[in-house]
Specification:
With 248 residues, the chain is of the alpha/beta class. It is built from nine helices and eight strands. 35% of the residues lie in helices and 21% in strands.
């Protein structure tokens, strides 16, 4: 499905039936990436999976990208769908987008799971971003990129430029403690303790700042420690969290 929002064509899909569950993919990903975690939509939930601007089937005519703008796009999609409040999962850049959504509109999200999403970009990540290119991904991942992003090589080059641009961006991903303290959603922060981009200390900064926060540090987990063998325990843990089983 496609809708015109904030000057772009936003593509999104739904799967399953029940309570809405928003899924936000990471930078360079797309909405269908949720299938790498869940074999099918979790029982009792309808997954809403948009492609962020410039990703997947969504356009980005201006060529610029910020996570703050991505958050405004997704909030507009929720209004289009007449959803005043949702539960949500966000991976990496999708998690950053969720942090923006939760600080822009404290009532939009009741509970969220934020995976490998930092309050700011540390030096480790900026160094990686500066070097990001087709060569750094390899042939197999480039083929997956072409399958995800359906608008051709121009779209891919726009995405690579976006990722490299993050290295010199300081005002978009810059969540201070007072800023994070305004988040009203119950928040599960998931971090790998071997993340090469974002030191696990950043997870503790989020945990201390967000009022209703829970923290899960995945032992030996890298960036986005929710795929492959980690998918099943992640799915089980997240469903228990979203059900309110962790509430004290």
């Amino acid at each position: 499905m496609v809708v015109e929002i904030n000057g772009i064509e936003m593509s999104w899909a739904v799967a399953g039936e029940g309570e809405p569950l928003l899924w936000l993919h990471g930078a360079m990903g797309s909405g269908p990436d949720w299938r790498y975690i869940f074999n099918e939509p979790p029982a009792g939930y309808q997954i809403i999976a948009p492609d962020l601007r410039g990703h997947g089937g969504s356009t980005n005519p201006e060529g610029t990208f910020t996570f703050r703008q991505a958050a405004a796009d997704v909030l507009a999609l929720l209004r289009h769908l007449k959803l005043s409040k949702v539960k949500a999962l966000g991976l990496s850049g999708g998690g950053i987008t969720l942090l923006h959504m939760a600080t822009i509109d404290a009532d939009a999200i009741s509970a969220m799971v934020v995976v490998s999403a930092p309050p700011y970009f540390p030096a480790e990540a900026r160094g990686f971003m500066k070097q990001f290119s087709e060569a750094s991904l390899g042939a197999a991942e480039m083929e997956r990129m072409r399958q995800r992003h359906t608008r051709g090589d121009a779209q891919l080059q726009q995405l690579f430029a976006m990722a490299r641009g993050f290295a010199d961006s300081y005002d978009d991903v810059s969540f201070t403690q007072p800023h994070l303290a305004t988040i009203g959603a119950e928040t599960l922060i998931v971090f790998g303790d071997r993340d090469p981009l974002y030191p696990v200390s950043l997870a503790f900064e989020l945990y201390r700042a967000i009022p209703k926060a829970y923290l899960w540090v995945v032992p030996n987990g890298g960036h986005g420690p929710i795929f492959g063998d980690a998918a099943a325990p992640f799915s089980t843990t997240v469903m228990r969290f979203l059900s309110g089983a962790w509430r004290t």
